[in-house]
Design a protein that fits this description.
9 helices, OB fold (Dihydrolipoamide Acetyltransferase, E2P), Rossmann fold, about 375 residues, 6-stranded mixed sheet, 5-stranded antiparallel sheet, alpha+beta, 2 domains, binds adenosine-5'-triphosphate
């Protein structure tokens, strides 16, 4: 549905986008995820036609769109700040964009009704903006974009103004809505949980470049580099000795964790005899009395943070320079472990991931 080829965008000497190549399929919920200033909004606005790439090609539904203004592209955009008109009621806000289509009044009314139903605002057509909650206002903005039946809906941080609970509800709703209408959604967000929860695929961006494109699970579990791993969530980074380099695989040793065989990520280069590997905190667990596990080692609790249903524990392991963090549910008493407690730690060898060098990946 969207093909982006070698897109670059410069503002004077500043390069906001470098060599962007991306293909987004029809019906896909695709997220552009990255920290502030990484270029995700510039890329979204280039698809919309509000920005013009300095070079490269953008095709939407098979057609090169460079020469087309935003209102002649088969896309519509939902902005962060809703941008709904305060003096118009909900139905008139939705009708606004339809006016230029000059539909007959019955068809216009039918389309507005359909859009109201899609965003679950059925009975609220006559309400004014100030009579709506933040979530309802955001739904009006969505309905106003959907009523024009775009092939692609572009969403620029659409949930960032909502409080945490409402944001989580709307994430679920937005995902459901995308499934119902079946069109391509491209979402810009700096919130990794939002991207993980909603997307079919995610492109992680840093410094104007795409660092990795993958499904949520793959990008979380198999990040290509240390920076991607850290941006997606907690990760324990460990330095490992390379024991054997066997083409697609590497065997490494990390202190008491022993030898681990790992798949080399795309573009991975070994430098010297050492590698950085990572393991997510939930891939480590405490062995309680009576539990056994083929992969376990001794550790000592040095810090803990209680979060209600889970506890984060920092543990020291002999022979490792830095402590490692693990996340335990509190169902078995992790919240009662005192600092200083000696524990057995089990780990999942499949949870280790080999991490590439960020600087090399950006070249
Ligand atoms: P945020 O989440 O903060 O919106 P972003 O990842 O969406 O960040 P962009 O808005 O795409 O980032 O901006 C990318 C870079 O380009 C930033 O460093 C920004 O300052 C710069 N930039 C964006 N628009 C312009 C402009 N019109 N002129 C000059 N620089 C710009």
């Amino acid at each position: 549905m969207i093909e982006i080829r070698q897109v670059n965008k410069s503002y004077g000497i500043y390069k906001a986008l470098t060599d962007i190549d991306l293909t987004i399929s029809s019906g896909e919920f695709f997220s552009l995820l990255g920290p502030s200033g990484c270029g995700k909004t510039t890329l979204l606005r280039s698809i919309a036609g509000f920005e013009h790439p300095s070079s490269g090609e953008i095709r939407i539904d098979g057609e090169e769109v460079s020469a087309r203004p935003p209102n002649h592209r088969p896309v519509n955009m939902v902005f962060q700040n809703y941008a709904i008109f305060p003096h118009l009621d909900v139905a008139d806000n939705i009708a606004y964009g339809l006016k230029r289509l000059r539909l007959d009044p019955t068809e216009e009314k039918r389309r507005i009704g359909e859009a109201l139903e899609q965003v679950r605002l059925g009975p609220l057509g006559k309400r004014k903006s100030h009579e709506l909650s933040g979530g309802q206002r955001q739904r009006v903005a969505l309905a106003r974009a959907l009523v024009l039946r775009p092939k692609v809906l572009l969403l620029d941080e659409p949930l960032s103004a909502l409080d945490k609970k409402l944001r989580e509800e709307m994430q679920f709703e937005l995902r459901q809505l995308q499934k119902t209408v079946g069109i391509t959604f491209v979402l810009v967000t700096h919130d990794q949980y939002e991207a993980l929860a909603m997307s079919d695929r995610i492109a992680v961006m840093f410094d104007g470049r795409i660092a990795q494109v993958a499904t949520p699970k793959e990008i979380y579990q198999r990040p290509l580099t240390r920076r991607i791993a850290a941006f997606l969530g907690g990760m324990n980074f460990l330095s490992a000795d390379i024991i054997a380099d066997q083409g697609a695989e590497l065997v490494v040793r990390t202190g008491k964790f022993g030898e681990v065989r790992m798949e080399k990520p795309r573009g991975f280069q070994t430098e010297g005899g050492r590698a950085t590997i990572g393991i997510r905190p939930e891939r480590l667990r405490i062995l309680w009395e009576g539990d056994t596990d083929a992969h376990s080692l001794s550790a000592r609790v040095i810090n803990r943070a209680y979060f209600g249903e889970i506890t984060h524990l920092d543990v020291a392991i002999e022979g490792l320079e830095h402590s490692v963090t693990l996340i335990e549910t509190n169902a078995f008493g992790a919240d009662d472990l005192p600092v200083g407690a000696e524990v057995r730690l089990a780990y999942d060898p499949d949870g280790f991931v080999l991490l590439g060098d960020d600087a090399a990946a950006a070249r």
